[in-house]
Amino acid sequence: MARQLVSDKKETSLGENVVVIAVFALLMSTFIYHFFKQQDSITKVGFDAIANVFITKLTLVHAQWLMDGKPDLIEVSSSNLNANDDDGNEIISIKVPVNNKGWIDVENDTGVRCEKIWQYVMDTEMEFMRSPVSAVEIKLNQSSNPADNQGYSMCRFSIPSGEFFEYFSQNGKIKAY
Fold it and tell me: Which residues of the chain are modeled with pLDDT < 50?
């Protein structure tokens, strides 16, 4: 009788373990399903936040340009703690080039104009959630209506999932899509 009691108890605990594992697997599969279902919206919200940070930093540099008397270079503090100059000294501030209207802009001598603008504004590598951010310069045709031009070129910053925003350095406007 004692052996049968022990056997019944083992069967009961084995049955309980199977039920616990089944419930745990069901909960995990539900979580994974909802996570992947929401991943696109999470990415969109995150990239929108990056665009808002870009706008904020541009506005701060423009305001500093106005307060400093409209110089060609604005000195801003660097948040990149690992930044070093050619001699190995830690960089505490960087000089950011601006155009004659006070918006961050660089000369296009090497074909990486938009990448340089990103690095001046964001002070980070071109990466978002372990995905690369691409930067493309798009030349715009000059129109007789200045409102149509939005500048002579723009930078489009995008991620592989398709979200992007555009920066017009001639007037500092950002358009998010």
Answer: 149-151
